[in-house]
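In the lab's daily routine, each protein ends up as an entry in a very long ledger. A line of letters takes care of the sequence, but it says nothing directly about the fold. The fold becomes a row of whole numbers, each drawn from a learned catalogue of backbone shapes. The protein below has been through that process, and both of its lines are reproduced in full:
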Amino acid sequence: MVREGEQIRLIIPVEGNFHPKRTLLLPSGLVPISKVAKALKEDPNSQYAVIGHSDSTGEQELNQKLSLERAQAVASILMLGGVSSKRMSLTSMGEDQPRADNSTHTGRMLNRRVEILLTPYPTRVAMAN
């Protein structure tokens, strides 16, 4: 979790939370995301962005698709937990916003992630103005 002013960014690494060959969440990833959904459901005034990211290995189009499918998997669990889809946006960044150097194994692992960006209602209104 990273605090950025009034926003909170929850970072869900792909490693250990998603099936290595597919975009399905593993049970180890389902439990914490279900807990996040419960907390988000209790805060009806905030907006949430679910953002998928990948590393730069392979074709850019495939990376875009993988990051979108992972973000959709997380969004689905949030909605099953009671978070309204009207308060949530879904985005696929693919390999466009790396957190680390893609030339190393560790860097690629850090870049493969799904983020949940929480924006409280007053901040959202101020950003719109």
Observations:
- The radius of gyration is 14 Å.
- DSSP finds four helices and five strands in the chain.
- The mean pLDDT is 90.
- The chain has one domain: 2-128.
